[in-house]
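Example S7 (C-alpha cells).
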C-alpha cells in the first residue's frame, strides 16, 4: 500500500523536528519512506489542489498497517509539531 503526501512548508525548523521523528513511527507499522523530494514544477492542476512544496512516498505492507500508523498514538504525538511545520494532504493509492 502506497501513501502519498503533498506538503506545503510553513516552518522549516519545525519541519526538521517532524522529519526527524516521523520515520520511526512509520517503521513501527512495517512502513518505509520510499521517496522524499521537492516539487520542481506543476504541469496541470485541474483539481485546484492547493500549492505544495514537496512530496513524500511511503510504503506499508497493506492498507491495515497504513491506517493503523495514521491513527496510531506514535503519529498522533507528532501532530502538534506537524501543524506548525506544514499543511499536508495524505492519501493512499493501490
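Recovered sequence:
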Amino acid at each position: 500500500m502506497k501513501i502519498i503526501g503533498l506538503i506545503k512548508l510553513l516552518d522549516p525548523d519545525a519541519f526538521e523536528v517532524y522529519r526527524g521523528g516521523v520515520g520511526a513511527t512509520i517503521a513501527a507499522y512495517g512502513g518505509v519512506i520510499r521517496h522524499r523530494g521537492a516539487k520542481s514544477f506543476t504541469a496541470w492542476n485541474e483539481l485546484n489542489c492547493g500549492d505544495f512544496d514537496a512530496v513524500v512516498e511511503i510504503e506499508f505492507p497493506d492498507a491495515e498497517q497504513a491506517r493503523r500508523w495514521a491513527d496510531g498514538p506514535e503519529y498522533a504525538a507528532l501532530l502538534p509539531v506537524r501543524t506548525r511545520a506544514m499543511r499536508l494532504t495524505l492519501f493512499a493509492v493501490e
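Notes on this example. The CA atoms of residues 2 and 59 lie 5 Å apart.
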